[in-house]
Design a protein that fits this description.
Family: Belongs to the glucose-6-phosphate 1-epimerase family.
Helix content: under 10%
Order of helices and strands: EEEEEEEEHEEEEEEEEEEEEHEE
Function: Catalyzes the interconversion between the alpha and beta anomers from at least three hexose 6-phosphate sugars (Glc6P, Gal6P, and Man6P).
Pfam family, one: Aldose_epim
Distance between the termini: 37 Å
InterPro entries: Aldose_1/G6P_1-epimerase, G6P_1-epimerase, Gal_mutarotase_sf_dom, GH-type_carb-bd
Strand content: 35-45%
Bound molecules: 6-O-phosphono-alpha-D-glucopyranose
Number of strands: 22
Radius of gyration: 19 Å
Structural class: mainly beta
Shape: globular
Keywords: Isomerase
């Protein structure tokens, strides 16, 4: 399917009036709603690099992010699959790089569809869904050698009046089972990290990667971010984690069939150590709330599928 080269305005035969617009070229696909809300996805990594809602950019992307396919994008929503972090050496993913291969593989644009129903189309408003695919057949020789399973991924990015949904579908298309982890490594924009708090994690057990991977229980109803944070919250009972500024929500992150979330801000020293993190004080303007399945492994038998993701709502 080589539809990526042609611009693809879409229209629905059942409705009149302004319709969502979709444009695709060989590197990226973008969609804009009549309201002006928009999303942009780079085929490299199927990385969402922009989501504008009510006139505001909601994702943070580093000024030094590589968008040319030479390195995973520092910002937006990189996709982590089939391993999170550095994989354990004695595991089937052990030869893969940190966070796996999905974020640095070239995905195929599978096309768009519009819908008047679904979680982002309340009251019959149009939403637009963009589908992207990656399978063992179009993996680099290097990644295939490191992880030789037969799989198919479909990543659906749906822009609606009420928010953005990103959903990953994983299929085992081979004859032997495999284990995987997945994560949507979202970098959200905030006007000021010192005015930012995170809610919806209280009572949850987390691994603190800054404190030698020790286990703790979250005690804050509204968690301030006052230094480097790198935590894996496991089996979160609440559906939604929210980002607040001055005590008011700016964004809800709703887990969709996944139960874990990583909270990350590199703060001063870690930002200095990342060549693609600019400006160096950019840590003041971002926070990562990353939903996924990263506590242990998901096992897929031949022919089975798994689906998980997030629904984002901006205020
Ligand atoms: O630098 P990257 O490979 O993109 O990883 C960026 C970050 O991703 C996650 O949030 C991990 O929990 C962090 O430990 C890691 O530093």
């Amino acid at each position: 399917m080589d539809r990526a080269n042609k611009p693809q305005p879409i229209s629905s035969p059942t409705t009149t009036g302004p319709q969502p617009q979709v444009n695709a070229d060989k590197d990226r696909v973008s969609a804009t709603l009549p309201t002006g809300d928009s999303v942009e996805v780079l085929l490299y990594g199927a990385t969402v690099t922009s989501w504008k809602s009510n006139g505001k950019e909601r994702l943070w992307v580093s000024d030094a992010a590589k968008l040319d396919g030479s390195k995973p994008v520092r910002g937006g929503i990189p996709l982590v699959f089939p391993c999170f972090g550095p994989p354990p050496k004695d595991h089937a993913t052990g030869a893969l790089p940190q966070h796996g291969f999905a974020r640095n593989s070239h995905w195929e644009y599978l096309g768009s569809s519009s819908s008047e129903s679904g979680p982002l189309s309340k009251g019959g408003d149009d939403s637009v869904k963009l589908d992207f695919g990656l399978s063992s057949a179009n993996l680099s020789a290097e990644a295939k050698k490191a992880w030789g399973y037969d799989f198919g991924l479909v990543y659906s990015v749906t822009l609606g009046k009420d928010g953005l949904q990103t959903l990953l579908n994983v299929r085992n298309s081979g004859t032997i089972p495999f284990d995987f982890q997945m994560l949507l490594h979202s970098y959200f924009s905030t006007p000021s990290i010192t005015r930012t708090t995170i809610t919806g994690l209280a009572g949850t057990t987390y691994i603190d990667k800054v404190l030698n991977a020790t286990t703790h229980t979250e005690s804050h109803t509204a968690l301030p971010i006052t230094g480097e944070v790198d935590r894996v919250y496991k089996s979160i009972p609440q559906d939604t984690t929210s980002v607040l500024v001055d005590g008011k929500p700016i964004l809800d992150v709703q887990r969709d069939n996944v139960r874990d979330s990583v909270l990350w801000n590199p703060w001063i020293e870690k930002s200095k150590g990342m060549g693609d993190f600019e400006p160096k004080d950019g840590y003041q303007k971002m926070v990562c709330v990353e939903v996924g399945a990263v506590d242990g492994w998901q096992k897929l038998e031949p022919g089975e599928t798994y689906e998980g993701g997030q629904i984002l709502r901006a205020y």
